[in-house]
Design goal:
By secondary structure, this protein is α/β, with parallel strands linked by helices. About 40% of the residues lie in helices and about 15% in strands. Strands 2-1-3-10-4-11 form a six-stranded mixed beta sheet, sandwiched between helices. α3 (about 65-70) packs across α11, α3 (about 65-70) crosses α12 (about 280-295) and α7 (about 165-175) crosses α14 (about 315-330). The protein is globular.
């Protein structure tokens, strides 16, 4: 079976998972309300909506959503319309939630956004804003791997077949001249698809020799004795590449643009606050992680992880196009038609009101 067919079948199987399975990985799990998110007296509903359902991952690369939830930025802008939250561990389950209407707006990586858009023929979602850049590293066992060339022949973990980090590692391996079968992960380097929650244990047990992973998983591995061999940002122009986007269900965008604009305004305000108050923002993100998962990150993981992530409203559209090209080269995706994947109209309206510069869609706008 050709790799592209196999990949599509894999995605179809993931998308068809029963809701009970998705619930186990965070599907529809609502985050706890915080005192800072109380509805202001006299506030009114937006578009008559009772709630806006927002999804995100429990990753520091989704800190805009974590901090916006924890500090009440989203609730403030939504007035008497409740900001409700669901947390996810993987892109396919969040895309399924978006398609089913279980969430309206989500923070997500570029590869799931591309897959969701192309699989639906461009009808399911729009990318409406940026959130974060960076925060991805190749961390290795320094006893087994002392240089980049030593990665050949080793076992390297990525979070999931075809996810953003999986595509990045396969592309980097190809640039080293190594051959790897994208579907099986076998070749000159063995790619081991492992959930981020399991990767630190896999590293400790010796079943993988390293991992190409987002924060805070990368810093968890360093805390276990791993060494950062490569920061992915070093491979990109200006050291910037999209790691987290904001997506919306197209029907929701069409029917409730005022609500979408409110969430985007809150996101811009959150990023502004994060960049002005990095230490407080780091603590707020960690507090929300603890609220969502029951466990906060220790300082030796939180501090280095936070330093490697940049928070930005710019979706860095040209880098998403490049990441799609990498997936095509790896054999995980047929060349996609990404025309119309972006609609930055409302974001640029918000930025203009803030006195900030407009951001571009690299020719892939509506």
């Amino acid at each position: 079976m050709p790799a592209t067919q196999a990949f599509r079948r894999t995605l179809a199987v993931i998308a068809a998972l029963p809701l009970v399975t998705l619930a186990a990985c965070g599907y529809g799990s609502e985050a706890k309300d915080d005192d800072t998110a109380k509805v202001a007296a006299g506030a009114k509903k937006i578009d008559g909506l009772d709630s806006v359902k927002i999804g995100y991952f429990g990753n520091l690369t989704h800190a805009t959503a974590l901090v916006g939830n924890q500090k009440g930025f989203f609730q403030k802008e939504l007035g008497a319309t409740k900001a409700s939250y669901a947390t996810f561990n993987a892109g396919p389950s969040e895309i399924e939630a978006l398609n089913s209407g279980s969430i309206d707006i989500g923070w997500i990586g570029p590869s799931p956004a591309i897959n969701g858009f192309t699989k639906s023929g461009g009808k399911s979602l729009k990318i409406i804003g940026g959130s974060a850049s960076g925060g991805v590293k190749l961390v290795v066992n320094p006893k087994k791997i002392k240089s980049l060339k030593d990665v050949e022949g080793k076992r390297i973990a990525t979070p999931q077949l075809g996810n953003t980090q999986d595509v990045a590692f396969l592309n980097w391996a190809a640039e080293q001249g190594w051959k790897v079968d994208a579907q099986s992960g076998k070749g000159d380097v063995t790619v081991v698809r492992t959930d981020n929650k399991i990767t630190p244990d896999a590293y400790k047990s010796g079943s993988v020799d390293g991992a190409w992973v987002p924060e805070p998983t990368a810093s968890k591995l360093v805390a276990e004795g791993g060494k950062v061999l490569l920061d992915e940002s070093s491979l990109w122009p200006d050291k910037k590449f999209v790691i987290t986007n904001i997506i919306v269900r197209q029907a929701f965008l069409k029917e409730h643009p005022k609500a979408v604009e409110a969430v985007l305004k809150a996101s811009v305000e959150t990023n502004k606050w994060i960049n002005a108050n990095p230490d407080e923002a780091k603590a707020a993100a960690n507090k929300q992680l603890e609220s969502d998962s029951g466990k906060a990150l220790p300082a030796d993981v939180l501090d280095p992880a936070w330093k490697s992530i940049r928070f930005t409203d710019d979706p860095l559209a040209s880098t998403l196009h490049t990441e799609a090209d990498h997936a095509v080269k790896a054999g995980l995706l047929e060349k996609p038609d990404l025309n119309g994947i972006y609609d930055l109209t409302l974001l640029n309206k918000v930025l203009k009101a803030e006195g900030a510069s407009a951001v571009g869609d690299a020719g892939l706008g509506s």
